[in-house]
Design a protein that fits this description.
Belongs to the ComF/GntX family. It comes from Sphingomonas oleivorans. Pfam families: DZR_2, Pribosyltran. There is one protein chain. The chain is built from 9 helices and 7 strands. It is an alpha/beta fold. The chain folds into 2 domains: 1-43, no CATH class; 46-240, Rossmann fold (3-Layer(aba) Sandwich). Strands 1-7-6-2-3 form a 5-stranded parallel β-sheet. Helix 5 (107-115) crosses helix 7. The radius of gyration is 19 Å and the shape is globular. It binds zinc ion (2 copies). One zinc ion is lined by residues 52, 54-55, 57, 68-69, 71-72.
């Protein structure tokens, strides 16, 4: 190796070592890894009570921890409960897209840190991602929800079950589809992988996804897990579309 090569290599190492932490939302230099800058942090709309006990749709007024929204009363979801860290908006969307397409797998750790407070009991649960069809994985290289699930289990404990569900149907792009069309598109799309057939019986499952739009995908997954004998299915997402709070008309395509 020549002197110039050595210098170039030392330089590259120095740059890698000295690479400053950056805001997951906008990329400005921050004090610590996985910390948002003040501007992005203040734009994030953190979700919590009061909200629907099933789908986490925020309530204007606290109606108690068991209260459900009208939609969940009329048509109860197949999952028992759902939580999301933030409402879907400009910064939440940017983080989700950079994890999904931007080659920034480290953002799974950023998201896992925000999910941790919603993940009580995870240590005793099977933690599984909403699966991608294998064609999508081949094209993209990874399932973003699997990265989040892995990062979360590192923090909370629990049984990581990356292949708990399989997607046997390549569903069309859901963007632009209304709620009813979405339900139809994912019907029968998920099955339990045979390997977990006995192991899932009587177990509580924490299902991980990046973005929750209408709940059609999560419901289809929860139904498959219920049929397989799971005792409980909880859903945990990075961002949830909340009516009236979407400041960006470009709706997400969760898959
Ligand atoms: Zn920022
Ligand atoms: Zn609800």
């Amino acid at each position: 190796m020549g002197v110039m090569d050595r210098l170039a290599m030392a330089g590259a190492q120095l740059i890698a070592f000295a690479l400053p932490p950056r805001c997951p939302g906008c990329g400005v230099v921050t004090a610590d890894d996985h910390h948002f800058c003040l501007a992005c942090w203040s734009k994030l709309d953190f979700l919590g009570p009061p909200a629907c006990a099933a789908c986490a749709e925020p309530f204007e007024q606290d109606a108690g921890p068991e209260a459900r929204c009208g939609a969940c009363l009329a048509d109860p979801p197949a999952y028992d409960a759902m939580a999301a860290a933030v409402a879907y908006g400009e910064i939440a969307r940017r983080v989700a897209l950079r994890l999904k397409y931007g080659g920034r797998p480290g953002l799974a750790e950023t998201i896992a840190r925000q999910l941790e407070r919603h993940a009580s009991g995870a240590a005793d649960m099977l933690v599984a991602p909403v699966p991608l069809h294998r064609w999508r994985i081949w094209r993209r290289g990874y399932n973003q929800s699997a990265l989040i699930a892995r990062a979360l289990v590192r923090r909370t404990g629990g049984t990581l079950a990356l292949d708990l569900l399989e997607r046997r149907k390549a569903t069309p792009v859901l963007r632009g589809l209304g709620p009813a069309a979405r339900v139809k598109a994912v019907r029968g799309a998920f099955i339990l992988s045979p390997r977990w057939k006995e192991l899932v019986k009587g177990r509580a499952v924490l299902l991980i996804d990046d973005v929750y739009t209408t709940g059609a995908t999560a419901n289809a997954c929860a139904k498959a897990l219920r049929r397989a004998g799971a005792s409980q299915v909880r859903l945990l997402c990075w961002a949830r579309v909340v009516r009236g709070r979407v400041d960006d008309v470009d709706f997400p395509d969760p898959r």
